[in-house]
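[step 3/7] inverse_fold.run input=structure_tokens len=501
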């Protein structure tokens, strides 16, 4: 996809350097500050969850009359905000500050600190001057975010009317680690997601959201619930259980549209909806309507490798590979789909461990009717490998059973191969069952050897025929276990979709 430049007017011909040195302020009280760097960021890059913190030593224990106990800092000194500044606390507990002027300013830097307040004023004035120079006239719907880090300043601007985010000049969103868009409307969806992230982080001064915004979100989740109930390939992010819970929350939020906590709730859900629509190319001609179609552009493993894995896994790696492909379509992971998949895998591995443990008892037959010692040792090794593989997979994947989509995406991406996709991972997932079945096959062959040794040729042939008939019967009934012929391993026939593991 092409690289996309963002500007307030979405003019791709307008260019502006992302990083520029701060010029001297016309305000003499700020002119002595050491110049720093003004950095455009997105609302997702404020670092609110990445900051190191240490609780101060408790020092407040004396209760004084209200007039003497209000607005004191940790040192007991009075705390005053400058004119036009108001302090708020985000629902998660993060304090932030808003300057109510013609260009509203929001910051989570501590403006109670005179030095930080001076830097906020310096950079705010600098940005205002840049806006004037660029002939960008701000309106009451604009809101500037600034974050002070040493002498540097991070910033972005949101427009509450357009529900969008922009910067002083054009910037490349790929430099923020974001995916490029395929059209201007597709890009607007990404900007709207960033806008709602800002509202989620700074909701308390918003005076609420229009009730229609909440009603629209309820309708979106109702449709998502319908899609999950009636379609196995729904592209909606949330499961039907989650949709029902969110609809209940939004119905409560609708009764308190001016409450900051409800504003935060609605903004977070709006962010997720925008992210989902960006990933599925909502509103575009090439929109993804179902998540059960794998892109034909993906590189596929060689036919020989695919067949070898199919033989080793007795065909069981096919299902795991197909499901992993569907889980990672367009490099997007749906949290509820991952949790369903890994819960099923864990249950299968647990059952395989139990069956394998019981299969060790089959070797009691050879105490009374010894067979081949080599075959006995081989089956014991296969059963041991199955039990070991089950234990290791259960131990490794149990913490990921209830993880969210972000952690699931990180894991799936880490195990994907550019050459073989999920082929080797699928083989690993199938090891407990495959090794167990191979062990059963060796035990059956050993039984035939034992019958031949103790009862002769005819009983051995009869037992072999019975086993073959049983195998053919189960192969027909349970056709998912498909063992390709040795000849097909070296066939040069062009690969088709059915050849995928």
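[step 3/7] decode complete -> sequence:
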């Amino acid at each position: 996809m092409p690289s996309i430049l963002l500007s307030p007017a979405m003019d791709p011909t307008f260019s502006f350097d992302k990083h520029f040195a701060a010029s001297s302020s016309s305000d003499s009280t700020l002119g002595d500050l050491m110049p720093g760097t003004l950095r455009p960021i997105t609302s997702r890059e404020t670092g609110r969850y990445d900051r190191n913190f240490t609780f101060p030593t408790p020092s407040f224990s004396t209760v004084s009359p209200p007039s003497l106990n209000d607005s004191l800092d940790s040192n007991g000194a009075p705390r005053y905000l400058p004119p036009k500044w108001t302090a708020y606390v985000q629902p998660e507990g993060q304090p932030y500050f808003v300057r109510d002027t013609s260009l509203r300013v929001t910051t989570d830097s501590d403006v109670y600190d005179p030095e930080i307040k001076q830097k906020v004023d310096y950079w705010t004035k600098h940005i205002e001057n840049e806006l004037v120079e660029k002939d960008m006239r701000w309106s009451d719907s604009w809101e500037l975010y600034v974050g002070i880090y040493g002498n540097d300043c991070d910033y972005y601007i949101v427009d509450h009317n357009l529900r969008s985010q922009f910067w002083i000049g054009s910037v490349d969103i790929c430099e923020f680690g974001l995916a490029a868009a395929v059209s201007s409307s597709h890009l607007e969806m990404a900007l709207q997601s960033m806008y709602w992230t800002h509202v989620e982080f700074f909701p308390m001064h918003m005076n609420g959201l229009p009730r229609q915004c909440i009603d629209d979100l309820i309708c979106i989740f109702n449709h998502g619930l319908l899609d999950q109930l009636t379609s196995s390939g729904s592209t909606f992010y949330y499961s039907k259980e989650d949709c029902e819970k969110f609809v209940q929350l939004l119905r409560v939020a609708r009764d308190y549209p001016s409450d900051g906590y409800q504003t935060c709730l609605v903004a977070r859900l709006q962010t997720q909806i925008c992210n989902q629509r960006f990933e599925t190319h909502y509103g575009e001609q090439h929109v993804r309507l179902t998540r059960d179609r794998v892109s034909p552009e993906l590189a596929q493993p060689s036919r020989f490798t695919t067949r070898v894995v199919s033989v080793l896994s007795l065909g069981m790696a096919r299902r795991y590979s197909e499901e992993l492909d569907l889980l990672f379509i367009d490099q997007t992971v749906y949290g509820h789909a991952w949790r369903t998949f890994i819960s099923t895998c864990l249950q299968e591995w647990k059952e395989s461990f139990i069956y394998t443990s019981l299969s060790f008892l089959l070797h009691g037959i050879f105490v009374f009717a010894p067979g081949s010692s080599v075959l006995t040792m081989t089956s014991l090794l296969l059963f041991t490998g199955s039990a070991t593989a089950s234990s290791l997979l259960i131990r490794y994947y149990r913490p990921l059973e209830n993880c969210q989509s972000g952690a699931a995406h990180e894991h799936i991406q880490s195990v994907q191969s550019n050459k073989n996709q999920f082929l080797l991972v699928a083989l690993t997932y199938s090891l407990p069952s495959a090794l167990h079945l191979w062990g059963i096959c060796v035990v059956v062959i050993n039984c035939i050897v034992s019958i031949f040794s103790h009862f002769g040729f005819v009983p051995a042939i009869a037992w072999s025929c019975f086993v073959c008939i049983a195998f053919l019967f189960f192969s027909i009934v349970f056709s998912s276990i498909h063992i390709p012929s040795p000849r097909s391993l070296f066939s040069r026939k062009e690969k088709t979709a059915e050849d995928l593991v």
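[step 4/7] annotate
Strands lie at 5-6, 20-21, 37-40, 85-89, 95-99, 104-107, 142-149, 152-159, 164-166, 171-172.
Residues 162 and 192 are 8 Å apart (CA to CA).
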